[in-house]
Amino acid sequence: MRRKASLLLLAFAVFFTALSPMLRWYAFPRLAKVPPNQYQDMVLEAKDATLLDYGTLKARKVSKVTIVQTLKGNVEAAERIERTAGRDVVVWDGLSYVQGPDGEMVSRIPERYIFDAHTQEPVHAPGEMVDGDPVRREGIEFKWPFLTEKRSYEYFDAQTRTSAPIHYRGTEDFRGVEVYYFEQTVPWTEVPYPKKMPVDGITPETLAGTGTTRWYTTVRKFWVEPLTGAPVYGEEIHKEELRGGTLLGDRDKVTAFAGHVKMREDYIDHTVDLVKSNRTLILLLTAYLPWGFLAFGVLLLSLALYLEVRGRRPGDPAPTGASQLALQLPPA
Q: How far is it, in rounded angstroms, from Cα 65 to Cα 106?
């Protein structure tokens, strides 16, 4: 009976020990993915900012500029792309809506971001765009990969429509969460005008006809929770200028926007709480269950060996010489 029990425990020990690495290295990469129907919004503010008055073409100080960013999962588009891509795909339809202190629109830039649900690598498919312009992204945008590493990543900039490294700068504690701090500097670059301008009658085509160009630079900062790859906080030191052409008269350039853009406080709290809950799920698959199964397997193996040793102990006195001889004689 003990031998049967020890064999059964040994079988379970092998099962749980083998399940430990399989869960971490096989199951986790397949189970961890961004849901295709996810919706999220974010409000950022730049207080005491500089904003261009397109009516007078003069820069003025304003109390606040608000940026509302929304990302909405497009399930129908994702399923259509998956049929040809052969992998799990997420399609985010995004909108960056900027408004001045009076609530009037400054700009609105739609965006479609298509990426692999597991790795966050871009998936190139028809419809990938920024403000109606087709793009071909390289690198990440909005979200880092699961199990983010302490290294630089290529990060896509929607203004310039190009990718450049965003560098790991260190590990910090952000409101009780260990995060990786990343920073990217985009140098002054000529960028296109938004398709939707804040003043009726002014279009990108009419501005381009004057020879006046739009330039942009930013210092982009993200604090990323490494297990989920989700930013818990972000900032940008953002500047835009109009340069040259007949539109500015005798001026070489004028500031279109300048401000230190930060996440609004209530959205920081919401984001940190959400990331903490998702972090627990990732830990369950990468640490708690794999290490727990390994420890359980070792415990079962110890019990199996213990029962095997006990089963081999002589429980009765050894037979005498006469009885041994009798056992060896053939029957009469």
A: 9
Pair 165, 153: CB distance under 8 Å: yes
Q: Which of 132, 111, 135 is nearest to 123 (CA)?
A: 135
74-106 confidence digits (pLDDT tens)? 999 999 999 999 999 999 999 999 999 988 899
How far apart CA 143 and CA 234 sit, in angstroms, is 12
Does some domain include residue 275? Answer: no
pLDDT in tens, 180-224: 999 999 999 999 999 988 888 788 888 888 999 999 999 999 999
Domain range for 71: 32-263
Asked if residue 290 and residue 204 are part of one domain, the reply reads: no
pTM for the full model?
0.86
> What tokens were used for 328?
């060896």
Does 250 share its domain with 291?
no
Question: Terminus-to-terminus CA distance in the chain, angstroms?
Answer: 34
| Shared-domain flag, residues 201 and 152 | yes
Structure token pair of residue 10: 């040994």
- 274: which DSSP letter? H
Cα separation, 55 vs 86, whole angstroms: 51
Task: Supply φ then ψ for residue 15, to 5 degrees.
Answer: -60, -50
277 in a domain, yes or no?
Answer: no
User: What's the structural domain count of the chain?
Assistant: 2
Other beta carbons within 10 angstroms of residue 115's beta carbon come to 22
The answer to whether residue 122 sits within a structural domain is yes
CA 18/CA 24 separation, integer angstroms: 11
Q: Of 90, 145, 148, 157, which Cα lies nearest the Cα of 120?
A: 145
The answer on 109 and 9 residing in a single domain is no
Residue type, 161: R
